[in-house]
Amino acid sequence: MGLKVYVDRLSQPSRAVLIFCKINGIDFEEIRVDIMKNKHFSPEYKAINPMSQVPAIVDGRFKLFESHAILIYLCSAFPGVASHWYPGDLFKRSKIHSVLDWHHSNLRRGTVGLVFNSIIGPQNGFPSNAQAAKEGEKLLMKSLAKLENFWLKDGRFLVGSLQPSIADISLVCEIMQLELLSEKDHERILSPYKKVVQWIEDTKKATAPHFDEVHDILFRAQKRFRERMATESVKNELKSKL
Amino acid sequence: MGLKVYVDRLSQPSRAVLIFCKINGIDFEEIRVDIMKNKHFSPEYKAINPMSQVPAIVDGRFKLFESHAILIYLCSAFPGVASHWYPGDLFKRSKIHSVLDWHHSNLRRGTVGLVFNSIIGPQNGFPSNAQAAKEGEKLLMKSLAKLENFWLKDGRFLVGSLQPSIADISLVCEIMQLELLSEKDHERILSPYKKVVQWIEDTKKATAPHFDEVHDILFRAQKRFRERMATESVKNELKSKL
Q1: Domain boundaries B85-234, corresponding CATH code
Q2: Domains of chain A: which residue ranges?
Q3: Contacts of A37 (CB under 8 A, 6+ apart)
Q4: Which pLDDT tens digit goes with each residue over A140-149?
């Protein structure tokens, strides 16, 4: 019984796990858990992950959820994975744990807070929450500044590495969620952080062609969202003229 | 140059690291970073942890922050640490990573949201935020239910362990922060979760006498907060009679 990976490619940690498996030639079966159709709340999926979140894996008799834990597990369970993804060196490994832990309460909370409350929620019938979106953006900007000035200060990749680790895939996939914003907002938020922008490009290149392939769904969602936003904007302009 | 541990014992992850060092006989110097006096924002401390949070460690030339990363580092860097704290077995270790990751976005956010917004903030001159406190409590209750019915379902300690791991110390220290609530709220929130209450006791016993010693500051803060709350309640009662 091989590795099964339960994901929705619209979820950033799902994409991180998929890209990691693909770039490392890990043999796996991708099983889609459509979160827009609430499949993560189904009894079948709850038997795999009682927290009703994606991603999760089943490897033989072993079940695991939480994307960072999954990425670390895969590095250890599959002998073909190059050591730069999760170095054996105690100091390097500890720094990777540190940035992954930091991610939870900073970059992730900021991105999710902004993108959900300003785009995904309102576009899917949830009441919009401008205050929550604003707080998310504030935390996101603070996190991007820390990436620029601290986490990326010593090398092309996080924590001074010359080659990508699981942390680079995880955090870059998080930031990619900002593609769902309007072009103007995306530019306004990301462009001040030159090192961050370069690092995203470097991580894309290091995981090509899988990075773009796995993100395809996100760009299709972006297109839909931006078209709807444009239509709404025209409607509002017309209204204001009546 | 030995291990230096930068903490404020009022911070739950600081207490987790201190208790871990003490129970494992790790030789270290405790350096207090008084967060009530904003010492975590001082340039000296920012040179150790640019995120201005406690705890952090300096071990020789190596600096590290984020309490989970620190606990994992200590398990690997100090050979005397018993393996149950952070098992070498891939499956057990992965489950510990999973519960530690889960902690970030669930139990921790719930506890901090409730305790800061209902007690610590208002008692220290921050505007009270009833909505944030309510959301914190909701997430906390959901997290306690998951602890009771999932994480503690297979053993005395988390993820089916018979002996405590770093995750038990970390999560129990988090829950201890609820001691700052009124006696009535503390009872109302925790008492429905019998396994959780027993697990807290088991973790205290497994780390005695260090657990109580390190938490002493919390009980002193509790006494102050509860006395103030009692005085305010008497004042409000008198006002309502006037």
Answers
A1: 1.20.1050.10
A2: 3-81, 86-234
A3: none
A4: 999 999 999 9
